[in-house]
Description:
mainly alpha, 0% strand
Amino acid sequence: MAPTAVIGDGEAVRAADREVERIQAQLVRMFRQAGEPDPGRLREFVATAPTWATALNDAVPDTLPPHALAEIRGLIIEALGLLQGPTLEQRPADALEGVLVKLEAVRHILRDQLDGALEADEADAKAVLGRLEEWLPGVAQSEIAQLVHVTPRTLQRWRRDGGATPRRLLLVTRLAALLHQSWTPAGVLAWFHRARPELDGSRPIDLLEDPRSEAVLLDAARRGRAGHGA
């Protein structure tokens, strides 16, 4: 399973976010008070687009999940396309606004990775379980055991002795990392047990065993968080 952004990579993700912010600021400075881009700055921005796009691509750490990397790189390509198409000639303000939207989407993905990062050693079940229990205070051990698909006795052993982190424990904790900032512990628990249209009517808990569903579940958690007012 591909690693997510963890504490050792967090600064790299933040650095990539700052790079996007720098490019956005350059774009905003291009607009006159009337809201139209300054022609000279526009030409300069278009001419340097391959350079900043390459710098941004290089700044994104390759330790991000493959689906996040693919989405970010796709957005960078789409942003470059807006600077090479007819929209730039006919409606330059619309083209640049589109680039800003693409860059903001990149920042959302980067921030999602930081939100979903575990400030713990992902290889250690004790550390990962500790984060999960911290984010789900008051949730019964039997409920956590059901999510992770182990017995409460196994939770006790992990809490005491640690050990290798099972894939399902890590995935549940990553999902909780995304959800707990916007939902109560009971709401996070309910999210796992409710059928969700973005999962074709499946319940998240029923997909946790399938490694192929991991990216879909993480995306559903991000959308669920946003839909709850995050």
